[in-house]
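assembly run, all chains below
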Amino acid sequence: MPIPRFEKLDAESRATILDAARVEFAAHGYDGSSYNRIIANSGRSKSSFYYYFQGKQDLYVTVVKDAVAQFTEAVGQERPVEGIEEFWAECARMFLRFYEFGMNNPVLVGVLKSVFELQRQPLGGDLLPQLALKDVTWYETTIQRGQGLGAIRADYPIDLIVALLFAVLEAKMRWSLERWFSSEAIDIKQDVDFIIDLFRRMAAPADPETGKPRW
Amino acid sequence: MPIPRFEKLDAESRATILDAARVEFAAHGYDGSSYNRIIANSGRSKSSFYYYFQGKQDLYVTVVKDAVAQFTEAVGQERPVEGIEEFWAECARMFLRFYEFGMNNPVLVGVLKSVFELQRQPLGGDLLPQLALKDVTWYETTIQRGQGLGAIRADYPIDLIVALLFAVLEAKMRWSLERWFSSEAIDIKQDVDFIIDLFRRMAAPADPETGKPRW
Amino acid sequence: MPIPRFEKLDAESRATILDAARVEFAAHGYDGSSYNRIIANSGRSKSSFYYYFQGKQDLYVTVVKDAVAQFTEAVGQERPVEGIEEFWAECARMFLRFYEFGMNNPVLVGVLKSVFELQRQPLGGDLLPQLALKDVTWYETTIQRGQGLGAIRADYPIDLIVALLFAVLEAKMRWSLERWFSSEAIDIKQDVDFIIDLFRRMAAPADPETGKPRW
Amino acid sequence: MPIPRFEKLDAESRATILDAARVEFAAHGYDGSSYNRIIANSGRSKSSFYYYFQGKQDLYVTVVKDAVAQFTEAVGQERPVEGIEEFWAECARMFLRFYEFGMNNPVLVGVLKSVFELQRQPLGGDLLPQLALKDVTWYETTIQRGQGLGAIRADYPIDLIVALLFAVLEAKMRWSLERWFSSEAIDIKQDVDFIIDLFRRMAAPADPETGKPRW
DNA sequence: TATGAATGAGCATTCATTCAT
DNA sequence: TATGAATGAATGCTCATTCAT
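ok done. output:
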């Protein structure tokens, strides 16, 4: 039950509302956010929020879906590649776009982060399905292509691999952002190389005899 | 700040109180938890909670410190080792103990998880220091020993390595627990091997020429 | 900070709310007053109070400003005078109006009294400035005019003189009100003469040689 | 119902308790003071307070009576005088002792101040009588002596005169203390002269014809 | 004599939501 | 279509006091 007549609203009003919501959700997560505060910060009437959204959950869902769409668009389409090295190079390019977009849109990163928080909560139960994260599968496609090329091990469930890679990615980004907010310079290119190398280490197929990662 | 005369209370009352608190904090995290709910669930009067704890923060700190202590005790002391293989074998043993304890005490895992959530929040500022996590450094010692043996790469900051390993560990445990709660059987030994292998892949020193992990 | 959309409310509702607040604040002072009690006595819901006021402080500020405005209006403008006797006569007229208004509105006197209490408290720090008492300066103007005419001594700081005169005024009014509440008859005219005479004694310039008040 | 077995306590314990209470009551007044806070600051058990005092009121009464006694002792006995000038000089001497004692014991001044606050409250009803302020009448004696000498007007009720003089005294002391706490130097002698002069102006008999104060 | 333990009532404030118009 | 008005339930916390030992 995402949006009723919110779409018909003029772009500026829509932006005003979503911006206030994004900032709040990014800063405090879903639970920690106050619908009242969002409303107050948006400068619009409380009733109008209930006119456009069913409530807090509905607004959150709207905000998250929009953020996911923006990230997806920023990453762009994966170009077909052939060798293992090429595969990782393409991953690096995609990831660089993701990374740059995130660095330029920290609020959207915060929104994504709030989703990760939610996934940790066993009781986010009725909210999570509405986010329709199952529909966001482009990375799974990429991983499967990697498996086909022999770049990514195929002896474990794909959702486990995804969970692990995301965890690492999130941790690294948080680590970098912390330093970014303390105004240390960040070498994005180097960061991306680091993560891709890490992904590769984690995902490389295991030599059936020695168990070592096959490079 | 942590505990006043709570220690003097008889063990049963103490357990009743801490159990109610643990369950609540594990399920909802610090912010999402309700002090009132904990009180109601414990069957005691509101005032008695303020007699034993300074407030919500104090109770949380008490619960967390207790959980950390239990995990630390469960893991036990690291035994001195010499070679790289031995080092990882010892890690596996320690980790197995950690893992088994966590599987048998999912609520305590939840408590630990709530701390991770808190660390993600930029505003948890005045609460985090009280948890005295800086005093929990045994794993840093282990990692440094690994670096000394050439088992763990030394070309990155240790806190980055810790953050990444923890992220992976947390993700894997969540993945396993989910399946555990759906009453799928879990082969703990296999899980531990998986994680240790993952750790080893992530942490292995890089060959200076090829950049590949050196096994 | 003071009032949001409270002004738009119909006069009757506004009066109901302010009356309940006035009575409470007059009877118990700011600290001793209970927002909950005001709400209960007004017959409205708790939330509606937070819809119209930011909180207890805000309501108090509203009540006080309103009371001060009513008193100021009751006192009216000072008419220009020339001689010393005329000056005191004009003071008596102004004061008579103040006095009569106060006698007819004891609750408003109580509100004013609560402000005096607050000024005594070193910790009323963040509340007092909101009352904007610095804007209420008509009496300082009058005193300065009196100094210009030689009716009021100019060898002491004006704020000291104000403090002393107010103290005397407050004490006399309390003394009279007490008797009033015990249904003794009060001769307002005589009271005013008494206070003006007292003011004149206190404020008369000192003869430089004898130190006696110069009449 | 002032004190049960509190008197039997050793002097040091008694002082510890009373000091904590004095500081609290002086700083926050009776209503604003927290019995819990006094107990916490005293370092003693909560139960012991209820063992020695019937409750908050009882402790307050004890503290006030003690303070009044200390002030009374500090002021000392009035020496018999004959002329008007001598009378005021003796007043000045007594008052100087009062003033000096107060300046050296600001906490006790605070306790006295809290009594004045209480007298302003119509609801302090059941507490005020316990303070037995009616027993403190030495100043009335002095005033009556002044009336006998023709130094103080006798055409108004004595309690009105007392109330007015106290009001002025309190206001002047507060004015001075404020500056004292801002570490401005205070000339006590000059202050006393100022107040005595003010008292004399206020209290001097009125010439039956002109109404002017007779010096 | 002395105190640790426990309590119910109250505090100001914020929450997401609904309703009447 | 749009919103001002109103609300019940909950939040964390402090209060003075009592009771059992």
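Chain C touches chain D through 35 residues (CB under 8 Å).

The longest helix of chain C spans residues 158-181.

not gonna interpret more than that til we talk
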